[in-house]
Structures are given as structure tokens and as C-alpha cells.
Inverse folding.
DNA sequence: CTACTTGCAAATCATTTGCAGATGA
DNA sequence: TCATCTGCAAATGATTTGCAAGTAG
């Protein structure tokens, strides 16, 4: 049963019917938008590995194309927004800048943020989701999504001493 | 917010040794900073009632002083930062802008955010804190703080139909 | 063809900062 | 006194947008 809706939080891994690139192409087609090489380069880079990144880091990986003037800063920002609209990326704000991560094809999760090394560590907790729903029920609140963010020091930095 | 369980109710107010104003004066003194009338006006306005606000809303309340040029935009921003440093206010980011709320003299809590009316509803859950600590322990992570943010539709907007 | 896209540069927007005059301790 | 403030205006920095030229369908 492919093609799950994005409000499904219950699975450790999410089966997907299409690769991110196809899925994006579909999104564009549906909106009368075009599949350009710029958009293709960006999607390819973004989904080449799973981690958190901001616009600048992404542009760092695309530096070649940018310096050749085949891709511009503006287009990167525009495409990032489209990827979020398309449900392929999730955007969060961390220290003033926007940070993105894969949303499509990955299970939902929350984060531990190490204040020392700035690492984001993912975790998933069914109990947290249950708790969220219980709180929402108590307030007659209809949940669309949630975000749990725990700040502190990660195992590595703790061992590295101090702080 | 009446009508809650005892366990929650007992945490609704936190006894403090000083009023926010005194506490801020203390903070300033300790840092060799001065208690000016501008800082006094801002603290007084900020703690005159408990709610969430951003820099612009605050300046709306201080419009009189600002138009008389006894207080400037820059000073409001500078003082807001000092209040956060002093531990009197907590800052969060919501839709690109900074939103503040009382931290001193107020129990810790998390938020339900209504996407329709933009209201922030506070809640406190001991179970959430326990869960947070359990997750952290599992990752050998030292917790400093956390933030849980649930997005959706509040009771009022749900009743009012649709979006 | 031609409507959607792009690169470029200029524009935003909230927030910050440099400076010279003002002021609290 | 005099180091710390303040208002002002200009500077930031990330992100967005207007526009004329480029290009997918």
C-alpha cells in the first residue's frame, strides 16, 4: 500500500511509491510547473544523502554549478520552498536560519540538539506521539503535526569533558 | 485556565523572591549596567500581563513613548535581549519573528499552536518531562531544556468550522 | 510558440550596530 | 566625572522579488 498521506506518523520506515525525483516531477506537473535542469540538480543533491542542511551548505555542494552561472542563489531558495510545498522536505528554524531535512521516505522523528557541537540527533518515540494526542484531546485540539526539540550536550561532547 | 487536575494546578505559579523589576535591577547591577528609565518602562510593560508578544506588539504598547522620542526601536530590541539574558523572558521563533513570554515566576510549559487563529495555548505535562529524560538517558544526552510545539486547530476554530 | 523559469540586482524585513550626544552611579 | 546608554540612521544577513532574457512542453 504505497502512497501514504503525510499525516501518518506510525511507521519506522515509510514505504514510498516513487523516488524523490519522480515525486517532485509529479508535483511540478500537477501544478503546471516545469522540470528544469536546475530543479533536477538541486533535488539530486538534496537526496543524495540523509542529513540536515541549510541553504548555504546546499549551495556549497552546488558551488561548481553556481560559479559556472548555471544555477543561482535565488533559484536554490525558490526550489527549496517548492520541495517543502511538495512535502519532500521539512523546514525548521535553528538559530535564525532555516534548516531542512528529508520528509518524504523517512519516518517522522524529533531531535536532540547538542549545544556544544551543533549536532542534531534524531529519535523517534511512539510514547511521545501518544502523549501529544492525549494532551491535544484534553484541549479539544486537532493535531496536524508536532515538533519536540531537546537541547543539551551529546554523549561525545560530554565525554570530551567539561561544559 | 481553571479546571485542571491537581498535579498540574500545583505548578501554575512559582514563588519568586523578587518582582521582575527588582530581579532585572539586580541583573543589571551585577553586570555593571545601569537602570535607565527606558529599561524601566519596558520591563513594566512586559510584566504588566501574561501573554506572548513580539517586538512590534510591545512597541505598539509603548507607542506613546516612542512617538515622543523618549524610547527607540533599537532600545526595545536591546532590552529584550537583556531580559532574555537575565532569565526573565524566554524567546522562541515563530514564523520568522521572535516571540517572547515570561520565564521568571512562571512555570515551565509547552505550546499548542492554532494554525487558524495563531493563538498559543500553554500546557504543562510532567509525563512529557519524564519522557524527555528517558529519551535523553537512552542517548547519553544531558538535557538543558526542551521545547514541544504542537501545531493544529484549537477548539474554538474547530467549532467555527473549517480552517 | 509562450507561459513558466532563471540569473541578476535590487528590495525586504526583522534585528543589529556605529556614533555622538545624553545620563545614571 | 565618565563609563554606560540612547536615538538615529545606516548596516546586516538571510531570504524574496521585479524584470528581461532563456527555455521546457
Amino acid at each position: 500500500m504505497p502512497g501514504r498521506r503525510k499525516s501518518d506518523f506510525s511507521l519506522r520506515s515509510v514505504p514510498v511509491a516513487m523516488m524523490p525525483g519522480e515525486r517532485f516531477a509529479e508535483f511540478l506537473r500537477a501544478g503546471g510547473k516545469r522540470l528544469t535542469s536546475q530543479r533536477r540538480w538541486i533535488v539530486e543533491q538534496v537526496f543524495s544523502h540523509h542529513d540536515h542542511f541549510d541553504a548555504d551548505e546546499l549551495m556549497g555542494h552546488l558551488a561548481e554549478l553556481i560559479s559556472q552561472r548555471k544555477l543561482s542563489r535565488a533559484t536554490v531558495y525558490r526550489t527549496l520552498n517548492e520541495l517543502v510545498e511538495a512535502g519532500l522536505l521539512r523546514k525548521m528554524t535553528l538559530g535564525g536560519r532555516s534548516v531542512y531535512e528529508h520528509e518524504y521516505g523517512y519516518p517522522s522523528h524529533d531531535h536532540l540538539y547538542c549545544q556544544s557541537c551543533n549536532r542534531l540527533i534524531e529519535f523517534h518515540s511512539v510514547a511521545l506521539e501518544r502523549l501529544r494526542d492525549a494532551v491535544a484531546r484534553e484541549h479539544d485540539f486537532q493535531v496536524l503535526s508536532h515538533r519536540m526539540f531537546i537541547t543539551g550536550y551529546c554523549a561525545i561532547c560530554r565525554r570530551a569533558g567539561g561544559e
